[in-house]
Amino acid sequence: MKLSYELTKEDYLAFNLYYVKNSAAIKKSLFAQRFFPPIAFLVLPFIFTGITGEFSVGLSVVFMLTAVAWMMFYPRYFYWHVKNGVNKALNEGKNDNLIGEHTFTLHEDGFIEKNKVEERKVSWSGIEKVAENEEYYFLFFSSMSAYILPKRAFADEEAKRQFRQLADRAVSSDGLWTGRG
Length: 181
Hints:
The protein has four helices and eight strands; from the N terminus they run E-H-H-H-E-E-E-E-E-E-H-E. By secondary structure, it is an alpha+beta fold. It has helices spanning 9-22, 24-52, 57-91, 157-171, and strands spanning 2-7, 100-107, 110-114, 119-123, 129-132, 136-140, 146-150, 177-178. Helix 1 crosses helix 3 (57-91) and helix 2 (24-52) packs antiparallel against helix 3 (57-91). The two termini are 22 Å apart. Pfam families: YcxB. The chain crosses the membrane at residues 35-51, 57-74.
């Protein structure tokens, strides 16, 4: 099976958002960043009370509202920050091996990925896991890096089914397929 498609900055942004939303380490970090600062905001009025000897209702309300706003809006800020950082990184340099025309040729023993500047032959044993969401298949070759296969590259549902069967045969013995959508 041979797929030809254009990879865009949006595809790389989508991969990075998929990664940060599904990484256990990043989820844990996001949880801590989302809830520990508000706890500090809620404790600060009591610290000020201990220092000044006087409880300030106004200050307590401000810190409480800040804590609630932080918990509500921090995840949105976090994902915006990720997108902004990836976008800036992609705008640095040429990135000809990332952005642009790609050809992906699938075989029983692996695949060949070609782009404007290089060609890579990869055996299925070099793939740590295969994941998918509504728009993409991701073939992870490390914990943080993957080949991105947009589902729009497949001619039809039958081609997607054939790819999934091939990937299932190649990785099912290791149970590496995740995130079926």
